[in-house]
From TrEMBL:
Cofactor: biotin
Domain annotation ATP-grasp: ranges: 122-319
InterPro entries: ATP-grasp, BC-like_N, Biotin_carboxylase_complex, Biotin_carboxylation_dom, Biotin_COase_C, Biotin_lipoyl, CPAse_ATP-bd, PreATP-grasp_dom_sf
Every Biotin carboxylation domain range: 3-446
Protein name: Biotin/lipoyl-binding protein
PROSITE patterns reported for this sequence: ATP_GRASP, BC, BIOTINYL_LIPOYL, CPSASE_2
Start and end residues of each Lipoyl-binding domain: 584-660
Length: 663
């Protein structure tokens, strides 16, 4: 098998850039693909060649097997790396590569097919001697068959998509009464994610550890494992924080889990990098759950503690090289943790977020795999993952503290994201203590999601907006355009932050000192104000608020400003409604029009005109960033009009359902 000379990367953004970084030092020419939505993306700019494979916006562009193969042949690529997601676990894509004479950087079509079907994977694992969870998997089972199987297994049970992965199409069912609704929801999400709504059942192990073993195998029947990763910090079965090694795994258990993983590798004649995943219960017993036949999002933490470049080894193995690593040569150095920076708002039930990247500055002291750039845009068409912040320390506590510090120094402004949530996780005493399971986030939600107070940021925004320069070169301060009140009188402001409307008055003493009335209680005093222009639309402000000195970044937006205090990763968006008419709906007033809170696709419309609904009734289900989101009624009402249908593409704030008050 000849060395790979030209590699097409059948993926986008962060993972495409990661593969580029591995391929270029090896002398491999690189080819990027992109949809029109990604034509300015970093992976497109950094590859040797780039080809458009579909219109914008289009998730489907990256799923077009025929187009990917056609582009590879056109570019003269002799190999394709699929990354993760999209076609990375598609047997059909793997077979198409074989048929076209193109080397796939990954396992054989048969190995992918065997592991892609969870029922088949479990059967092979059992035959290979791996411990498995009791369950039921009949591909054509009816709803009544599944309900009967759930009763035999005993609640709680887990519904899992047969063709699934990444937590999609999974639902935990605690009682028989909720089984039917949860089954429907799981099948719908599986259909949207994998175009396959078949499911299987497993006995649910409550609050286990989620442990995965990284493996590498060559075509010469030599394989090794590179230890474990702990992926127990999950929300809706989606990993958020991953680490290596696991605080729950000792050397003896690592050896047993590694041996089990390698049994599956040999049973499937696996080639390349892969991950065998297990659940570890409180008794120290582990159970096989699935195998991911691709590179994992969290591969960087394994690289950090082993010094092994997994992507380069993927490329070398795909070129037919012998895997020279021996099991006894693999040593683990220190501790690594990864936080997934995602475009979602934890304060609003992790609602997906989109918007412009106004400011982006990752911490220089940690590894950050990303494809963000100031001036770019986060669209609703792809996964919410933005970046992976990876740290390495001499020990686990040092790594926890380093991740928290790195997140504090991360600046990302333009939309809500989860950096502060990640920082709270890494600083939490239970997480730092290491004794937790997959229920950690739910068990400590009150602490992790506790609202922040932004009084200082509101005060800075108020002064900035009241005395903002009309352009960045004029003298400071300057009056707000449109006001007729004199500078001697307090400047009236109507601002909106965190869903609250603030009616403020800002007074200046003409000596870099200001009083802000209307925030809370007594006037907030802001002194020693100093503002400097950092770059177009971005300002650095130093000020003392209520006697506390701090530095702030203020970034203009279309509707106001973002204010971020130094070492606080969560910026505050303050909208300026001073010169706008009052909102038609005041706080607490009946919400007649239900609008879409995000961009996304309508997957279910659950109400019809004339129907009476209660507070909390699900009206519409939306799919955004590959996840299902339920839109509910805020109070009891009568459905007057439904403006949408299944399949409609929603824009944020687009009307969906009109409600009327019950007389």
């Amino acid at each position: 098998m000849p060395r790979i000379k030209k590699l097409l990367i059948a993926n986008r953004n962060e993972i495409a850039r990661r593969i580029l970084r591995a391929a270029k030092p090896m002398g491999i020419a690189t080819v990027a693909v992109y949809s029109e939505a990604d034509k300015k993306a970093m992976h497109v700019q950094e590859a040797d060649e780039a080809y458009c494979i579909g219109p914008a916006p289009s998730l489907e562009s990256y799923l077009r097997i025929d187009k990917l193969i056609e582009t590879a042949l056109k570019a003269g690529a002799d190999a394709i790396h699929p990354g993760y997601g999209f076609v990375s676990e598609s047997p059909a894509f793997a077979q198409a590569c074989v048929d076209a004479g193109i080397t796939l950087v990954g396992p054989t079509p048969q190995a992918i097919a065997d592991m892609a079907d969870k029922a088949r994977a479990k059967e092979i694992a059992q035959q290979a001697g791996l411990p498995c969870i009791p369950g039921f998997s009949e591909p054509n089972a009816s709803v009544s068959d599944l309900m009967a199987a759930a009763q035999r297994i005993g609640y709680p049970v887990m519904i899992k998509a047969l063709a699934g992965g990444g937590g999609r199409g999974m639902r935990l069912v605690m009682t028989e009464s909720e089984f039917a609704s949860q089954l429907h929801s799981a099948q719908l999400e599986a259909k949207n994610a994998f175009n396959d709504d078949r499911v299987m059942l497993e006995k649910a192990i409550i609050n286990p550890r989620h442990i995965e073993i990284q493996v590498l195998a060559d075509i010469h029947d030599h394989a090794v494992h590179l230890g474990e990763r702990d992926c127990s910090v999950q929300r809706r079965h989606q990993k958020i924080v991953e680490e290596a090694p696991s605080p729950a795994v000792n050397a003896e258990l690592r050896a047993r889990m590694g041996e089990a993983a390698l049994k599956l590798v040999h049973a499937t004649h696996y080639v390349g990098a892969g991950t065998v995943e297990f659940l570890l219960d409180s008794n120290g017993d582990f159970y096989f759950i699935e195998m991911n036949t691709r590179l994992q999002v969290e591969h960087g933490v394994t690289e950090a503690i082993t010094g092994v470049d997994l992507v380069q080894w993927q490329l070398r193995i795909a070129s037919g090289e012998h895997l020279t690593l021996q099991q006894e040569q693999i040593v683990f150095n220190g501790h690594a943790i990864q936080g997934r920076l995602c475009a979602e708002d934890p304060a609003r039930d992790f609602m997906p977020q989109t918007g412009p990247v106004l400011t982006w500055s990752p911490d220089a002291n940690s590894r950050c795999d990303h494809a963000l750039q100031a001036g770019g845009e986060v669209s609703p068409w792809y996964d919410s993952l933005l970046a992976k912040v990876i740290v390495h320390g001499d020990n686990r506590l040092a790594a926890c503290e380093k991740l928290a510090d790195s997140l504090k120094r991360t600046v990302l402004i333009g939309f809500e994201h989860n950096a502060h949530y990640l920082q709270r996780i890494s600083s939490h005493p239970v997480f730092q203590g290491g004794d937790f399971g997959t229920g950690f986030l739910a068990q400590h939600a009150d602490e992790l999601l506790k609202p922040q107070h932004f009084q200082a940021e509101c005060a800075v925004a108020a002064v900035f907006l009241a005395y903002a320069p009309r352009h960045e070169r004029c003298a400071w301060p300057a009056p707000l355009a449109g006001f007729s009140s004199t500078r001697a009188l307090p400047q009236p402001l109507k601002l909106k932050a965190q869903g609250n409307t603030l009616n403020l008055k800002v007074s200046s003493n003409n000596a870099n000192g200001y009083a802000i009335d209307g925030l809370a209680g007594e006037a907030v005093m802001l002194e020693q104000w100093h503002c400097a222009v950092a770059q177009q639309g971005i300002f650095t402000i130093e000020a003392m608020v209520q006697g506390q000195s701090a530095q702030y970044t203020v970034t203009r937006s279309n509707t106001g400003v973002w204010v971020q205090q130094w070492l606080n990763p969560q910026a505050l968006h303050v909208e300026d409604e001073t010169l706008l008419s009052a909102s038609a709906l005041a706080e607490g007033v009946f919400q007649a029009l239900v609008s879409s809170p995000m961009n996304g696709k309508v997957t279910q419309v659950l109400v019809q005109p004339g129907q009476q609904v209660e507070a909390g009734t699900v009206l519409v289900c939306l799919e955004s960033m590959k996840m299902e989101h339920r839109i509910t009624a805020k109070s009891a009402a009568i459905v007057e009009q439904v403006h949408i249908k299944v399949g409609d593409q929603m824009k944020q704030k687009q009307a969906m359902v009109q409600l009327g008050q019950i007389q």
